[in-house]
Amino acid sequence: MKTVLVTGGAGYIGSHCCKAFAESGWSVVAFDNLSRGWRDAVKWGPLIEADISDAAAMAAALDQYRPDAVAHFAAYAYVGESVERPELYYRNNSFGTLVLLEEMLKAGLDKLIFSSTCATYGIPTRSPIDETHRQAPINPYGWSKFIIERMVEDISLARGLNAVVLRYFNAAGCDPDGEIGERHEPETHVIPLAIAAAVKPGRTFVINGADFDTRDGTAMRDYVHVVDLARAHVLAGEKLLRDKGVHVYNLGTGAGTTVAELVDAVSRTSGIRLPVAYGPRRPGDPPALVAEAGKAERELGWVPEQSGIDRIVETALAWHRSRLEQI
Predict the structure, then answer these.
(1) pLDDT at res. 324
(2) Is pLDDT at 327 greater than 50 in this prediction?
(3) Do strands 162-168 and 246-251 pair parallel, antiparallel, or not at all (unpaired)?
(4) CATH: 3.40.630.30, 3.30.420.40, 3.90.25.10, 1.20.210.10. Which one for 190-221+254-326?
(5) Comparing 309 with 188, which gets the higher pLDDT?
(6) Which of 69, 226, 254, 319 pairs as cysteine with 111 (C-beta 3.0–4.6 A)?
(7) At residue 244, what are phi and psi to the nearest 5 degrees?
(8) What are the record keywords, sorted (predicted)?
(9) Is 141 a catalytic residue?
């Protein structure tokens, strides 16, 4: 049986990917310090509770399980927080990944699936964005991931590391089976906040910015269902077993949804009209990010199947309603 070590395996995207790998016949080991993940989200294999910057713990995990691939999700991912406290992002995301890569090299392990982001593109000069678009991040979160991509490329050239780099657009939705979902403390992600405003009395959903250069003035994002993302990681793992080198793919749908359109989708799906207020733009927010993901379809055989905005909201709403008292 193939084995994957999933750093950040107790987090939102990492836990969904653990499930997808397990259902595809992989043995799954989660590695997470639980600072932003959840112990009860680890359901498909053992949990190693440790930090990725702990070289000894990482070396022990790699030696014990000898994974066929490492799927690397462990990262801080709040754009606003990265602007306010950039040192956290460079220490955890960039330095933590360097420790992981060094320990993989020492262990003779050469296959990495890296969770990157469309934030490395910055403000796009064309849309949709393909993988050849220049990378010019506008916030420390994006820079921390860009630095990792550079490390992966350089270590591949020097030491033979093989990697698939997956640049997500906006991960959204929840496991349709209701086993896991999207939880953050604090919650800053737009869909959980919109759903909370729909189902919790007294909540108001704040739209940050109404003067972007988009069709209705609100920010536009390419939302891709987390289950579709998870399936892409399994396909990436299979590719690493076949092919050498570094392969970069966007993961998105090619369709942008504005925040105002998202509000309409939540209202439509929940049957409740959202109370809405308007606030200023968040620091570091581009007006629009929409993927060109044809390369992932051609080379991985990946096509998003559950990423319509109504389906995304439907699965997220079901998850959040199941734990209503906590949101």
Answers:
(1) 66
(2) no
(3) parallel
(4) 3.90.25.10
(5) 309
(6) 69
(7) -95, 170
(8) Isomerase
(9) yes
